């Protein structure tokens, strides 16, 4: 097992891929049809392309792992709520705002999360932030499942919300484990791991559909699998895993092709960016994108 500081370095490396995907996906989402032309970010000052709630929550998760080395739900709930309170205008969804506000005034996370939407949220918010956790626990996939489940439940108690987070965390962990393999071998390992570990759910059934899709254009895959337009885990995660595994050697193409299918662009690109970076490393993220993205807080 790798020591804590190495695992944390992997988590923060994946956070880079997640946050660049988030920021670039958000910035180009409004003109997604023209995103390739705009993706050079000409005349955009360094550090000015803002990331959104996906990155905010992923930072809270990384800081929590840095301190505690595992997921403690109450501590994580508090970390999410504190970041939200400090900077609420980051594109959080309506329900996320309500949950984080309630936790922030002292309501127990379990009560708040369990009753969101009646039976817990199945939004894509637990999946969007979880990739660094997958990197941190990559040495032990069973632990990835346990820890990602805990991290999801804090805000997404519904089994679909949890399944989406488990799938992304396991795919990310498999990406780390696949470093040094060819991208084809890595994609195989990611799919095998995800299907083995994702609990029975619609997320999992659509992941099976996704794996069996022939080489179709992304817009066809998105029509089949969803593109996050419903902001649910089921509607988001299968396409993201499909697109990431298809473009493991090419971060830029993974992000631009995801933006072109529309839907929840920042979250799709955050998830995909994290998974691709797990395998390909930070050096495959376009330098210009790293330069224009607002700075991440220093690693704690
Ligand atoms: Mg967002």
TrEMBL record:
Annotated Mg(2+) binding sites: 52-54, 264, 266-267
Taxonomic source organism: Sulfuriroseicoccus oceanibius
Residues in the signal sequence: none
Name of a matching Pfam family: ADP_ribosyl_GH
The protein's required cofactors: Mg(2+)
One GO MF term: metal ion binding
Cofactor binding summary note: Binds 2 magnesium ions per subunit.
UniProtKB keywords: Hydrolase, Magnesium, Metal-binding
InterPro entries tied to this protein: ADP-ribosylglycohydrolase, Ribosyl_crysJ1, Ribosyl_crysJ1_sf
Highest taxon listed in the record's lineage: Bacteria
Protein name as catalogued: ADP-ribosylglycohydrolase family protein
